[in-house]
Design brief:
alpha+beta; four-stranded antiparallel beta sheet; 358 residues; single chain
Length: 358
């Protein structure tokens, strides 16, 4: 309920009196704020907005989307149909109709999109909806040429921001290093890293093609290494990058590479060969575990005894183990059967734990 809105006692809310084909309340979309939000959306699009996009954005039927569009075109006769040469029609409102002239950077819009992704991931939909409305307002006041420029730079940055943020300790990363890497991502240029290896402490210089970031307990740069002995995608710890130089050497990004799919190969950020995973949560822990989003390809099943079976495919045994420890005895690892042996082997390899005899 909005501040200042008054409701008479014992009256039925207007939104519940009629419903459309999808069950959405029709009266709700006749409110000024809904129509104005659509108007901002139509002004904030360089290519115009279709009925299908209205339907998806507002979760309404096509008929309701048509009524919303008609309301906007009545209130703002400046609205025009955008010639596309396609069967799908689109409408937009000329820039400046709703707002004055304000400039916004690609980085600002990127961080707003990132914040929305984090909120959606953490099931904070109301908060993310507020920020989405803010993005519509920002895009609506931008000039068409400026909007096109920002949209061109925005797409690769959004693709590059692989969000997997978690609460807890954070490593300190230079803002300048992040800015340089982002600049290289936008330009599509190679970079030279001054990098210090985590395990050996050895410093090196290497030329890579930057593809994006993975944020987690430890933050990484995903890049294609041009080292003849590697020539593959690698993770570089951002905190261990001491210097970045943008080279005047553009590279062609592999269109087949997906940062999303690359990240989904693992449970966290650590990359290893994916394997089949099956966790069984006790009946006591099942209600809480049911609310967790463990992995994008997860499958959940409530068993007859009330326990919860979770299956997914990913690598990252150590990071899985760190999470499983938080559940204590309330979770059992069914697959892989040698899971804890894998964890012990990886721990010994990383920390060089000596064996204790007898």
């Amino acid at each position: 309920m909005y501040q200042g809105q008054s409701v008479l006692p014992c009256t039925e809310p207007a939104d519940t009196k009629r419903s459309g084909p999808r069950g959405e309340p029709l009266m709700r979309y006749e409110k000024p704020e809904s129509i104005f939000r659509l108007a901002l959306m139509m002004q904030g699009s360089a290519d115009g907005v279709s009925l299908q996009e209205i339907s998806v954005e507002f979760n309404v039927s096509r008929r309701t989307a048509e009524r919303m569009r008609d309301s906007v075109t009545r209130l703002f006769p400046q609205a025009v149909e955008v010639p596309t040469g396609e069967r799908m029609k689109r409408w937009r409102i000329p820039s400046g109709t709703l707002n004055g002239l304000t400039s916004f950077s690609t980085e600002e819009l990127t961080e707003l999109h990132n914040a929305i992704s984090i909120m959606q991931r953490d099931n904070l939909s109301p908060n993310s909806d507020i920020l989405r409305g803010l993005i519509f307002k920002l895009r609506a006041v931008m000039k068409p040429n400026e909007l096109r420029r920002v949209e061109t730079d925005l797409e690769p940055l959004l693709e590059a921001e692989g969000l997997a943020m978690r609460p807890g300790p954070r490593e300190i990363i230079s803002n300048q290093i992040l800015a340089n890497i982002r600049d290289a991502l936008i330009k599509g240029h190679k970079i030279r890293l001054h990098y210090r290896a985590r395990n050996t402490g050895k410093a090196s210089r290497q030329v890579v093609c930057p593809y994006g970031f993975l944020y987690g307990n430890r933050h990484y740069l995903v890049a294609y290494s041009l080292n003849p002995e590697v020539e593959d995608y690698r993770l570089f710890i951002l905190a261990n990058i001491e210097k970045v130089k943008i080279l005047d050497k553009p590279f062609a990004r592999d269109p087949a590479f997906s940062l999303k799919k690359y990240a989904e190969q693992s449970f966290g950020a650590f990359q290893e060969q994916p394997f089949q995973v099956a966790w069984k949560f006790s009946p006591k822990a099942a209600p809480e575990a049911q609310n967790f989003f463990f992995h994008p390809n997860q499958e959940k099943q409530i068993l007859n005894d009330g326990s919860l079976l979770v299956r997914f495919t990913a690598g990252g045994a150590l990071e899985m183990a760190w999470h499983l420890y938080t559940w204590g005895e309330q979770v059992e690892v069914l697959e892989p059967t040698d899971f804890w042996d894998r964890v012990d082997e990886q721990a010994e390899a990383i920390w060089d734990i000596p064996e204790v005899n007898g």
